[in-house]
Structures are given as structure tokens and as C-alpha cells.
Amino acid sequence: MPSRHAVPGAAIPAHRPAREAAEAALVEHYPALVRLAYLVLPPALGRHRRVLAAHALVQNSLAETAGRPKGGASLPGQRSGERPAHAWLRATVVRAALRPPRRFPPPFPFPLPLVLGLRLFPRAGGTDELALDRALAEAAPATRAALALRTLEGLPADAAARLLASADVADPAAALRAAERIDAASGTDVETLLRSAEFDPCTVHTRPTDLLRRRRHTRLAALAGALLLATAGVAVAAGIRAGTEAEPAASRAAPAPSTDPAALLRTPADRWADTSRVDLTAWPARGAGTRDTALLRRALEAWARGAGGGVRPTAAADTSVSPPAEPPRLLFAGPVDGADVVLLHDGRRLARYAEPRDGRGPAALDLARADDADVTTGAAVALTRTAGRARYLLAPWIAEAAVRDLGAPGTAARPLDVTPDGVTGPVPYGVPSGAGRAPGACAGATALQLRSSTRIVEDHAFLLADLGELLPAHLTWTPPPGADAPARAPREATGARGLAAWARSACSLTALHGTGVRSVNRWEYAEQPLPERAGRALWVCSRAETWEGSGRAAVSFEAPGGPAPRPVTELRDTAACGRFGQHVLAGAYWTAPSGTRYLLAAGSRRLTGVTAGGAVAATARGPFLAARAVAEGPVRLTGRLPDGSALPGFDVLPGPGPAFHQGSTDRQGPTGHEGPTGRRAPATVLLGRAALP
Question: Taking the model in full, what pTM does it have?
């Protein structure tokens, strides 16, 4: 069950909040509350009646008194810092939507708003949305409520259960389990589907009812028109946002909240210093253009419209290009390097809109995922990249900023100028190329070295590398295991050893450009004594985590005094070398200074033995194996774990270079395989993983 933003819920007092606070929360969260009501209401009502009913429930929620918990009960909040009025409204809407339908007899089952002469329905989605809609139609109302609370509202399971119990749901745990089954059965991210237009009752299409019958009832139609104007109900015009306030007939239609600059969310300037969510939601609106209504409207319309209108849209890997479901948060607006730039955040994505100030060339809209950005991954956003230079907008909690050359770990970081609005001076930007000044180092590989304010954390410095995304990637380092020491955790790479380690891996960042990476950890999982007293070699697994949740791992072998690290294997969409893939086994052929060839294999610290079979047959105790290789050929490795289980390795293939493998379960046969050009694939071994207890 997705719960990307959920943390243990706080208890919100059950008493009704002050009217001013409730009204403000209703206006701010109206689209989300209507979507929540629409999902919980019975699908048997039909889409037209569900749309009207959802708006009616939310619009009448302030007058709701029935069904509130008694005896000092409490309702769950979504996260620390959430306003009690929002939690109260959410619980009120869920209770009202879960009431038996018999309380609302036809022909008009709900209070106003009321529409006569038109049928309203949300936009149609794709096959995934249709499949989810059918599953929800077959589910119980409590199950639909549980899915919406967990997925859209981000409530933890215990908080959602308490809210459902307060709404008289007999078995909240069963409803949550049923919601998890729906989530597991969906082939696509459920949150993405539920935030699509298929389930948005605030963006509707309209169609007429029976036109011939309406001609015979002109008086009734005139009365209905007067009623619509008098009650300021649902705004009904094709393509406009439902639920906005009616304006005089001579005026223009009210703008949709997603394109209305006045509806933009703005965080108070000091919120970041007193909140448990130190992420992009804590960024205040900065820049000289935050009150430039025309610029903000152009940016919002570009996001809502997508391609066309002189705007060139792009999206990072696995990023939805759909318009925001609710008014986004304004992070920045103002001139930067000859362009007017607007930076927006809708809770899941970042949008950067840039238009040339001289009017030459099209405007650009760049979208990227920002799920669960935190104090490091949400610390900087790329504003512009021009002529090999980039400028960044730093988070308000960044107290110091500098630029570091990853290829020169012994050189001090260069302090970086930052404006009061958080915009940095120009930073060298480019893909690392060629060999650097030290063995394995890269020329042109730069990183931001940032330090957080002591108002939120003590002595916290970290590295960010620009990989061509809106959000730079966080670089960390895990040192080799110590003797009889517990497993080491990733740490910041700002110390001398961490910087020296990343100097050897800087070139590996080239392959990650534009792939949606949020963080990269260099894990030195084994330090192996080499035969013939040739020193100690490092086995490294670098794991890149992406914003959409998958990971990729690359193993390399670093011999002492050698050139660049030798790639061994690479895997995509794998848990290897991460929190849920902590057992690693890899091997390769190696030539000693005497010219003798050896088969080397190294596993992570928990391995108690390694066995090789095939062209080289050998067994060793502990995590290391080194055996003479009289002949080179495919070798299969197997490791042993302390509980006696086997960690299956994969084939070591002869050759000088790396190979790429899709997935972590592919196994090559004992005779090796041919590459796409007919030549034998280079030497490699795939990672082996055993399930953690």
C-alpha cells in the first residue's frame, strides 16, 4: 500500500474547529476533499450524481454535526504540523460519504448544488484507470475509503483505521486489507491512477439531457436557470473547473484553481525551522517575480496545457506530464541568466518554467519527480544551465555552499556565492570526461558541498552531483567492513576517505545522466588480500536509487596502483547492494605482477565460504577466494551464509571488460554467451543475493 508521505498520525481533537479555520481549510483543500468524497460514494449512483453528491458533501461539511465521535474521541491527523481543521473536514466528509444511500431518496438525493439540463462526468482515462474503476465499484464503501485515505491522504494504517472506526465502520482492519489487495492487483501505481482525470470530479465534461423533452418544458428550464444563478452551484461549461464561484454573466469564466495564480500555495518564510517535514513543502516562495501574476499564469497554463502554445515540454524518466490535480506550491519566480523562471511543486513533481526575457525562442517546461525529497535530496534545484554553467536554488535550511572537484579530493572546496533569495553563482556543469589527475579520477566532475543550518541539525555537510535532472543526486559512501564489526551504514562523503573514494568513482556518474537518479552510494563491500603479496584490492558496489523507486547496481574491482576501476557487472531494477540486498558475491580474472593468472572472488562480510566450479575449481573459507587459473573459461560461484543457506553466484566469463545484465535473476549457461556482434561477452560475474530474514 503506498504511503509515501505518511508518518505516525497525531491525534486531532474531535471538537469542531473555529469557523474561520474551517473555512480556510475548506477553500485550500476543496479539490482533494471532493475527490475523496467521489471515491467513497457508491458507484451505483452514476458519474453525474456522484459528481454532484461529492461537491454537495464537501460544500455542506461546515454545517455537519451528526456522526461526530462522542466521549472525547479523537480523529487521526495525516502528519505532524497538519492543521486540525483539515483533519476535521476530512473525517466529516468520509463519515458523510459512508452513510447508507437510503438517506438520500431520488430524484434529488443530495443537497445543492443542483444541475438541470446537463449531464456531468469526469474525463475518461485509459485501460488501467478503467480496471481500477471496476475494482472500486465491486469493493465495499469502507474499502474505497481506506484506499483513498492511505493513498491520496497519506495516512498511516493506524490513523486510517481510527478514522474509519469513528465513521462507524465495523471492521477497519478488514477494509485496510481489502484496499491493500486492490493496490497489489493494480499493474500501475495506484496513487497515479487515483490522481488522474478519471477520478477527478472537479474537472468535468458536460452533455445535454433529452433535448426534445426539454423543449416541451421550457418553463421548467427557465426556472432551473434562475435557480442556478441564485444558488451559485456547480459551474457547468465544457472544460471549466467545477466548484468555482459563479461570476456575473457578462464577466469571463472563473479560472481553474490549477491555473489561477491566486490559488498558489505559499509557505511562510520560517516554516522550515520549525517543522517535522524538512522537504520541498517547507520552501518559501522566493524571487523577484512572486507577485508577477502574468508570469505565474503563463507558467500554470503551460503546465495545464502541456505541448503547444509556444512551449517546449520535457519530462524526466518515469514522470507524469498530467496537469496538477490541485493548486501547486510556488517555490521561486524571477529573472535568472536572461530568462524568467518559475519553479512549482505539486507534492509529487517539480515543474520548472522558463521563458527568454528577450522573447527569442520558445518557453520551456521541465517536469521531474520529487517523491519524498528530504533534507539532502530536496536541498537544491537547478534553475538554469547555460554554456557549461549552472545556477541552483538552494533550500532555506542551507547555511553554507561550496563547489568541489570530485577528481581532486585533496583540493579545498571553493566557496559559492548565494543571493538572499537562495540563488547560487555559476557552477561548472558538464559530463565527466577522460582520465583525471589521479588514477581513476575524472576531469570535469564537480559537486555541490552543502551544509545544513544548525537550526535543524548539527554538523551536517553533504555532496550533491548534477546528473542533468532538476534535483541533483545525493552522493554517499560506505567504507569497507571492519574485523568483527557490525554492518556499516552509508555516510556522507565529505570526509577525506569519502572524497578519495568518490575520486575513483566519479567517471561512473556519466552513465547515470538523465536516468532519474536521486542518490548514489559507493559501497566498498570487501577488501581482499591479493596473491603474491601484491597488496589489497577493493570490491565496490555502487547503487543508484531512482525517484520512481527502482535501483541499479554496478560492481567494480580496484587493484592497488592500477588505473581506473575495472567494471565487473551492472544490473538494473534490483535490490542488490541496498537495504534489502545486503549479500553480494562477485568475481573476475586477474593477472599478478609476475604474469600469473588468478581467479578472484569476494563476497560481503557475512559469507562463510566461497566455492568455484567450472574452468577453475576451488573452495575457500570466509568471503574471499583466490585460485590459479591454468585455463580461462566460465566459472560458477556459490557462497555460504552463516545459517547454512547458499548464496548463488553467477558465471564468471573470460575477457577483459564489463558486461551488462538486465535484472538480477538472469543466469548464463556454463558455456558463456555470444554478444550482439558475435564476439564472446567480456569477463563478468553477476551479483548473487539471498533473501534477508
Answer: 0.61
